[in-house]
Amino acid sequence: MNAAAWSVLLTVLVAGWVLLDGAIQGAGATLLQERDHDGGDRRREPAERRVVLGAVWPLLLPGEVWLVAAVAVLVGVFPQAGAELLDAGYPVVIMLVGSWVLRDAGIWLRSRRPGRVWRDVWDVALVVASIVLAGSWGALLGIAWGSGLAALVLGIVAVVVTRLHGDAVVAWRLRRTGPLPVVVTSVMITAPVVGTAVSAWPHLVEGGVSAQAMASLGLVALVVLPVVLALQGLAWWLVSRPLGGRDTQVF
């Protein structure tokens, strides 16, 4: 594999994570409230929150596999670009990782003890962490553009689009809508990733490791990629099914 192929692979991996985890971020951001038929917001009951989390949970672990694979490609194949991005956006990266950990903790711990207060505290943490995670990811894309204004704009865009994407995936699983809204929001949520990749392509390729190292790492990719693709297929197969009672029991 040459530098161009690795760049494409990195873009696909990042876009895959955004597509999967963006649905969870959006669902988490709107966990406590939803828009009713009159256009206003209403507070979700605990049972409704479990349904929302149950609708997106199959995407959690497969999405994180894509993220880990993307980081491995960035660090292993394009170390210069990875180091520069970390140096320029270190506070944003810390916010992203911290909110990611808190979001996952909220999902898994909210129902591990009885009591409404325990659950409500974790639900609030989950909402805040989901919003911060989406915003920090968008800001990191803007930093990759080398612009503070782009970081601000893309951070706001990421928060808005992930909410739309999460609502679309949840509505699809509940069979309130067809798959078309999910397709539309999927394009919206991955477009900034593709645009950033195109913009950063020359600099990314220049900072890659040697051609021999890329070829050697390509052998590793041939082993890992089928596993990632299998997890992706499994995730979308699970999400494509109607939401059942067993999907909400863990939450």
UniProtKB/TrEMBL annotation:
Q: What is this entry's stated membrane topology?
A: Multi-pass membrane protein
UniProtKB keywords: Cell membrane, Membrane, Transmembrane, Transmembrane helix
Task: Name the domain of life.
Answer: Bacteria
Record has Transmembrane helix as a keyword = yes
Q: Per the UniProt record, which residue ranges are transmembrane?
A: 6-32, 52-78, 90-109, 121-143, 149-166, 178-201, 213-239
Q: What is its main location?
A: membrane
Localization (cell): Cell membrane
Family according to the record: Belongs to the cytochrome ubiquinol oxidase subunit 2 family.
UniProt name for this protein: Cytochrome bd-type quinol oxidase subunit 2
Annotated organism of origin = Promicromonospora umidemergens
Q: What is the lineage of its organism?
A: Bacteria, Bacillati, Actinomycetota, Actinomycetes, Micrococcales
